[in-house]
Task: inverse folding
């Protein structure tokens, strides 16, 4: 249901092995491992996602903007 990748030194990323379907892609920095699996966390960021639909043997490219997160202190309030 979730897949995480890290960008290279040029900000490029590669997602492989996705089954055909529609995906929401997020780009952020400093998120704790697995935090993106929290429905409440995703709900606050869903409008900032890029949606991509892939088919068999597709190769797609998309530019992402880094999502600026609130500090952990303000998120906990």
Result:
């Amino acid at each position: 249901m979730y897949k995480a990748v890290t960008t290279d030194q040029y900000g490029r990323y590669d997602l492989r092995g996705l089954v055909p379907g529609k995906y929401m892609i997020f780009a952020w920095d400093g998120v704790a491992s697995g935090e993106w699996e929290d429905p409440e966390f995703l709900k606050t960021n869903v409008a900032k996602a890029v949606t991509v639909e892939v088919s068999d043997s597709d190769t797609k490219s998309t530019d992402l903007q880094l999502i600026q997160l609130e500090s952990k202190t303000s998120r906990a309030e």
Observations:
- The mean pLDDT is 85.
